[in-house]
Write a structure and sequence with these properties.
mainly beta; 7-stranded mixed sheet; about 120 residues; about 0% helix
Length: about 120
């Protein structure tokens, strides 16, 4: 069983900062890309930022220069540092990982995993 557990959401005033964390646990063989998505009320889920195992990053235009994604491969953890937060950043933030886990033959299998989501509320 593999799961992602997020933490760090909450209420913050506009201009403030928050740091989200997401730890993967279970019988993990390896993790490829990890990322953060968000879904605001009445809107579709969208990619916020992603990072490969090698450290290459990708950001949504709306968060470039304000958010920074990073990961600790030894801890199977991904972070999202969010600065200069705006009310439009209010959403449920979900962690995502593309990974391989230990299994019976052939020894590992691919799985895409989602976290349970953490609410970020930015007040004006």
């Amino acid at each position: 069983q593999v799961q992602l557990v997020e933490s760090g959401g909450g209420l913050v005033q506009a201009g403030g900062s928050l740091r989200l964390s997401c730890a993967a646990s279970g019988s993990i063989f390896s993790i490829n890309a990890m990322g953060w998505y968000r879904q605001a009320p009445g809107k579709q889920r969208e990619l916020v930022a992603a990072i490969t195992s090698g450290g290459s990053t990708n950001y949504a235009d709306s968060v470039k220069g304000r958010f920074t994604i990073s990961r600790d491969n030894a801890k199977n953890t991904v972070y999202l540092q969010m600065n200069s937060l705006k009310p439009e950043d209010t959403a449920v933030y979900y962690c995502n990982a593309d990974l391989y886990y230990y299994s019976d033959y052939p020894g590992y299998r691919y799985l895409e995993v989602w976290g349970q989501g953490t609410l970020v509320t930015v007040s004006s």
